[in-house]
Design goal:
This protein has 560 residues and is mainly α. Among the domains are: 44 residues, no CATH class; 185 residues, no CATH class. The chain is 41% helix and 3% strand. The protein has 16 helices and 6 strands. The strands form 3 sheets. The protein has a two-stranded antiparallel ribbon. The protein has a two-stranded antiparallel ribbon with strand order 3-4. Strands 5-6 form a two-stranded antiparallel ribbon. Helix 8 crosses helix 9, helix 12 packs across helix 13 and helix 13 crosses helix 14. The chain is flat. The C terminus is likely disordered.
């Protein structure tokens, strides 16, 4: 075979690539790596020392518990001997035979382990001696016992013999947690000897009961007893004896513990069984007849509806808490029904006609409040000088919705007053909640709660703050409908569009004094409030960011 030149390399291929040069590290990188390794080794050593220390503490606690235990327990004998460091144990056979010495066995096992460990050490010098960690832990335990707290003397090791052991046919003590702790002490049942503790004497057979003083009632309010009759208070309501939830009439009989009852006329069970079964809504035909009589009763119109209006006027959540599915609404209507018809016992539900009718009444009232405010503002702008003058209407709306404007005050800040409340020359408004619009709205709705049976009644100490907050919201809503000089349909009067204005108005209404409420609830005639310094400043918190989006405070033009 003749030698020949190697074949040429392929295109784009290196047959013998040059080896890559190793990346050289700087001195700082090498030093950093070395320190990191040393730090890891030190952390492992510290962790090992901490583990040894904890194990030594555990052994120390076990020694303390074992010292408190009875040394005569055979279950703890080997543990006690091992914990004492294999001290001499003198064990003598009861038959006089040669005693078996545990020391020799321990010494022999120890010497064998030492010889094995020496051989291993000769073979592998880098490996730790067998049992070195255990010996180190034992030394730490002994040091902890030696240090102590200065108040406990170190007990001398005690040798144990067979004479010290208890009888083996006795049951051992009970232990919990694998024999590390004693079982908790249980209270032994006491046995009373009737001859020692006493009992009946022979003379007790012929004895008589002693005379005790009469049990006199403590003085106080007399007890009233109520009797329930089968006929109601009004002649239009009848009782159905087959229903548990029936109509009853209560009256006070006397102030003593007496009760009288009247049996219903028809007590035949066969007749009662013929009553129709309640429908799916939980209301039978007879109950529907009773409910219809309640809805047509005069107390519904004269007492129930005014009380319902009273509860609505003082509510701070006129939308959320007055829905038929709201638990608060059902509780409120039930309470009002119990106050309005104290002689009728009926548990209402969401599908009950009374609840549905009450919800419909409140829905109509809220709608009426919103529409009446629009009508009042519409009539106001049909008068001179606003009739047919959009520019005048626009200027008045800007002024009315300013802080201290005529939408909220009977004597507002003048329209040409440009000074801010904290500047000189500012004219403070007066007559909060006594503007022409607020008085017209309140005059139409306050009388509807006149016959309410709620306690406390509406007055200067318990004013209808919820009603006045709603009035301010609807007036502001109606005026904003004319912010461009012509009427534009406003947003829907509901919770989504009204909760923020309500939240802004309530703090201002809460600061109104009782004298102002007395004037508002007395005649709604308006007037000055020069003696009410605090009320003159309530306008600072009324115009919120919601209103700033619709108009600018002052004489600036309307946005948009």
């Amino acid at each position: 075979i003749t030698a020949r030149d190697p074949l040429p390399d392929r295109t784009g291929r290196n047959v013998h690539p040059a080896p890559k040069k190793p990346t050289r590290r700087s001195t700082q990188e090498v030093e950093t790596e070395r320190k990191a390794k040393l730090k890891a080794i030190e952390d492992q050593i510290q962790a090992m020392q901490e583990a040894k220390r904890r194990l030594a503490e555990v052994n120390t606690l076990e020694d303390i518990h074992n010292n408190a235990m009875d040394e005569g327990n055979p279950q703890c004998l080997s543990v006690a001997i091992r914990k004492r460091g294999h001290q001499d144990a003198e064990i003598v056979d009861s038959d006089g035979e040669e005693a078996f010495d545990f020391r020799e066995v321990d010494a022999m096992s120890t010497s064998e382990s030492e010889s094995e460990s020496e051989g291993t050490e000769n073979k592998k010098k880098g490996k730790a001696v067998k049992g070195a960690v255990r010996k180190e832990i034992q030394d730490m335990v002994e040091r902890q016992h030696a240090e102590g707290d200065g108040r406990r003397e170190k007990k001398k090791p005690r040798t144990t013999t067979l004479n010290d052991l208890p009888i083996l046919n006795t049951s051992p003590r009970k232990y919990d947690n694998s024999g590390l702790r004693k079982a908790p002490k249980t209270k032994t049942q006491e046995i009373h000897d009737p001859f020692e503790s006493g009992g009946l004497d022979d003379d007790d057979i012929v004895s008589v009961r002693p005379n005790f003083p009469p049990n006199l009632k403590a003085p106080g309010r007399p007890t009233r007893t109520y009797a329930f009759y089968g006929k109601p208070e009004t002649s239009g309501i009848k009782r159905d004896h087959s229903q548990k939830n029936a109509v009853g009439f209560s009256s006070i009989i006397n102030d003593e513990r007496k009760s009288t009852t009247r049996q219903p006329k028809n007590t035949d069970r066969s007749v009662a069984a013929a009553v129709p079964v309640p429908s799916a809504t939980g209301i039978s035909n007879n109950n529907e007849a009773i409910i219809n009589q309640i809805l047509n009763d005069t107390r519904w119109r004269r007492v129930f509806l005014p009380t319902l209006a009273h509860a609505f006027y003082i509510s701070r959540e006129p939308f959320v808490d007055w829905l038929r599915g709201s638990p608060t609404f059902l509780v409120t209507v039930q309470h009002i029904f119990d106050l309005s018809f104290p002689n009728v016992y009926l548990a209402l539900s969401q599908n009950n006609k009374i609840t549905i009718r009450a919800c419909s009444q409140m829905k109509s009232r809220k709608s009426s409040i919103g529409s009446n405010a629009l009508e009042i503002v519409h009539k106001f702008f049909r008068k001179k000088p606003f009739a047919g003058n959009p520019e005048k209407i626009r200027e008045y709306v800007l002024w009315a919705l300013r802080p201290g404007g005529p939408a909220y005050y009977s004597e507002p800040t003048p329209q040409d007053c440009k000074a801010k409340p904290n500047q000189s020359g500012y004219i403070a408004p007066s007559g909060f909640l006594q503007s022409e619009f607020v008085l017209a709205m309140a005059k139409g709705y306050l009388p509807s709660a006149k016959n309410s049976v709620f306690n406390p009644a509406l007055g200067k100490k318990h004013p209808p703050k919820g009603l006045y907050a709603l009035i301010l919201v609807v007036i502001e809503r109606a005026l904003c409908a004319y912010k461009n000089g012509a009427y534009i349909a406003p947003d829907k009067f509901d919770h989504d569009h009204s909760w923020k204005p309500l939240r802004d108005f309530f703090p201002a209404i809460d600061r109104v004094k009782e004298e102002r409420w007395a004037t508002l609830l007395g005649n709604q005639s308006g007037g000055s409030d020069t003696d009410l310094d605090d009320d003159a400043r309530v306008d600072e918190s009324m115009i919120s960011a919601y209103r700033a989006e619709m108009m600018l405070v002052g004489s600036s033009p309307v946005k948009g």
